[in-house]
Write a structure and sequence with these properties.
By secondary structure, this protein is α/β, with parallel strands linked by helices. Helix content is 33%, strand content 13%. It has four helices and four strands, in the order βαβαβαβα.
């Protein structure tokens, strides 16, 4: 008391030459309870549509008037019939699977090590990086 407090805030580094996301790209996040990733992606300039279920995701894909560039989901959520059905509605939409864990192989661009960051923040930053990479890839035929 009376002497103050020092805080150290550790943020991931942006790798040099990292591609920037397309302006106002729209993402469909299909997760029952993950609003943290949606918040991080929104803060990075993406328009994020959130669906709690596969059925809700299909409904959003059918009803949304604009383009949806990327759908983000976890592998357990992504049954082949769901992916096939939603890709019929949005054939140009890319699908990105969320990483299941944070480990050394998917945190090489984060500094300091993930032990200094919350796991949720590290996961959201990895996801944002993968979305940017995916959006900057040329369209596949």
């Amino acid at each position: 008391p009376g002497r103050g407090t020092t805080f150290q805030i550790l943020l991931p580094l942006m790798p040099e030459g990292e591609a920037t996301p397309l302006p106002k790209a729209t993402l469909l996040l299909v997760e029952p309870a993950d609003h943290f990733s949606g918040t991080i992606l929104s803060a990075k300039g993406y328009r994020v549509l959130i669906a709690a279920t596969r059925e809700e995701a299909i409904s959003i894909a059918e009803a949304y008037p604009g383009m949806i560039e990327v759908m983000i989901t976890s592998r357990p959520q992504a049954a082949p019939e769901f992916i096939a059905e939603i890709c019929k509605v949005r054939p140009t939409m890319k699908v990105l699977f969320k990483p299941e864990t944070v480990d050394d192989s998917n945190t090489k661009n984060l500094s300091p090590r993930p032990s200094g960051l919350s796991t949720e923040l590290a996961m959201a930053e990895i996801l944002a990086s993968r979305v940017a990479e995916l959006l900057n890839q040329p369209p596949s035929n």
